[in-house]
Write a structure and sequence with these properties.
This protein is of the alpha+beta class. It has helices at 16-23, 33-43, 77-82, 84-87, 89-96, 116-130, 146-152; strands at 5-9, 55-61, 67-74, 99-107, 135-141, 157-158, 165-169, 172-176, 182-188, 194-196, 199-201. The chain is 28% helix and 29% strand. It comes from Streptomyces plumbiresistens.
C-alpha cells in the first residue's frame, strides 16, 4: 500500500483496456509483448514452476478507483532455452530461478511524481529475493537518457549503450544479448553476487545453487 494507491497482483477481473493503456507508452523490443501480457492476465496464465515466477503488479487508486500503474517481471526463459544446447537444460533451469528480467514499469501521468515507480521496483526486488533469485536484469532505450539516473537511484548498474552484460557462472561466462539501441541494467539481489566493469559475478555460487 502506498498512500492513496494500492499495489497488488493483477487478477482475472482487471480491465484489459486499462492495462493496455498503461502498456502503450512502454518501449518493448517485441511489439507483440503488450498483447501477450494482457492475454496472460485474462487467462490466469502462470509460468510453469520449473521456470520460476512471472509477476504483473498493478497500482490502483483507493478504494476502488482506476488503475494508475503497472510493473511486469519474468525470468528470461526464452533466451535461456535458446542456450540449452551449450549450457544444458539443468543449468538453464537453475538460471531461470536465479535471474529475473524487469520488463516494464509504467505510471499514468496523473500519478507521477509520487514514488510509485520506485515502489513497484522495491516490491519486485523483495518478492524475488524471498524466492531465492540472485539478480534482476533489465534494459532502457538510449532515446530515454533520463531513465539512467532513475534506475541508478534504484541501485541498478547502467551499462553503456550497446554494451553486453557478461554473466560469470561456475562453468564460465555467457553474455546477455546486447542491442545498440539499449542500455543493460543489472542489480544483484544477494550479497555474494556483485557487479564490476560489465561483469555480474557470483551467480549460482554458494549453498543456494
Amino acid at each position: 500500500m502506498h498512500g492513496r494507491y494500492l499495489i497488488r497482483p493483477a487478477t482475472l477481473d482487471d480491465d484489459p483496456e486499462e492495462v493496455r493503456a498503461l502498456l502503450q507508452p512502454v518501449d518493448f523490443l517485441d511489439d507483440a509483448m503488450p498483447e501477450e501480457i494482457i492475454d496472460r492476465m485474462r487467462t490466469g496464465w502462470q509460468l510453469p514452476p520449473q521456470f520460476g515466477t512471472a509477476t504483473l503488479l498493478l497500482a490502483q487508486e483507493q478504494p476502488a478507483g482506476p488503475l494508475v500503474g503497472l510493473a511486469h517481471a519474468i525470468p528470461p526463459v526464452q533466451w535461456l532455452m535458446e542456450m540449452q544446447a551449450g549450457l544444458g537444460r539443468p543449468l538453464c533451469l537453475l538460471l531461470s530461478r536465479a535471474l529475473v528480467e524487469l520488463e516494464a514499469v509504467s505510471v499514468a501521468d496523473s500519478a507521477r511524481g509520487q514514488g510509485l515507480g520506485h515502489q513497484f521496483v522495491d516490491h519486485l526486488v523483495r518478492s524475488y529475493t524471498r524466492q531465492g533469485y540472485q539478480a534482476m536484469l533489465g534494459g532502457i532505450h538510449t532515446h530515454k537518457p533520463h531513465l539512467a539516473s532513475y534506475y541508478e537511484a534504484q541501485r541498478f548498474h547502467v551499462l553503456s549503450p550497446g554494451a553486453p552484460l557478461v554473466l560469470q557462472l561456475p562453468v564460465g561466462q555467457i553474455q546477455w544479448p546486447a542491442d545498440a539501441s539499449m542500455r543493460h541494467l543489472a542489480r544483484p539481489l544477494v550479497p555474494r553476487v556483485s557487479y564490476r566493469a560489465g561483469v555480474l559475478n557470483g551467480l549460482l555460487a554458494g549453498p543456494s545453487s
